Amino acid sequence: MLRSEGDEEFFTTALVALIDPSRQTLCCASAGHPGPLVWMGTGEAIDPFGERGLPLGLRDIAPALQTSQTLNVHAAAFAAFFTDGLLEWNRDIASSWSALHQAIEQQAVREGAHPAKMLRDAVITGPGHQDDVAVLTVRWDVEMRVRRPR
């Protein structure tokens, strides 16, 4: 549990995700953290985990009612996890969010050798970036199955 021992208030966002290849599911629980954005083969990136709880450190304000959410995925799916620094690099979150959506919807990005770098470069387009940025991508190239040893 994140707690402050001083007069200052501290909080942080977090996201926990679990990919289950045998069930072909992506399960997430968020404490105020964005994403992942997911492309399901339909031509449009979606934010299927829009329910976000309070950030860690603010849980004393309200009860933690956040539960995990699960999405069924298939062989064409692509997910992009990212820190908020990707969206806040220029303090224009709406344009960054739009650029991220557009980039994920491009086949060349999803199937590229370095999709995380391509997403970062598509969103962060100018100087002045001072926030930390991390991008992690998951691509379901083929039907994911757990192989059991014989």
Task: State the fourth-level CATH superfamily.
Answer: PPM-type phosphatase domain
CATH architecture: 4-Layer Sandwich
Q: What is the CATH C level class, in words?
A: Alpha Beta
What's the N-to-C terminus distance? 42 Å
| Individual helix count | 4
Classify the secondary structure makeup into a structural class: alpha+beta
Average pLDDT metric? 83
The major β-sheet equals: 4 strands, antiparallel
Question: If you consult CATH, what is the topology?
Answer: Phosphatase 2c, domain 1
Q: What is the number of independent domains?
A: 1
Percent helix range:
10-25%
Strand order of the largest sheet: 4-3-6-7
Order of helices and strands: EEEEEEHHHHE
Low confidence ranges:
none
Number of strands: 7
As a percent range, the share of strand residues is 15-25%
Shape: flat
Radius of gyration: 17 Å
Can you give a write-up of this model?
By secondary structure, this protein is an alpha+beta fold. The chain has a single domain (14-139), classed as Phosphatase 2c, domain 1, CATH 3.60.40.10. The chain contains 4 helices and 7 strands; from the N terminus they run E-E-E-E-E-E-H-H-H-H-E. The strands form 2 sheets. The chain has a 4-stranded antiparallel beta sheet. A 3-stranded antiparallel beta sheet has the order 1-2-5, with no helix packed on it. Strand 1 and strand 2 (25-31) form a beta hairpin. Helix 2 packs antiparallel against helix 4 (115-123). The longest helix has 12 residues, at 93-104. The N and C termini lie far apart (42 Å). The relative contact order is 0.19. The mean pLDDT is 83.
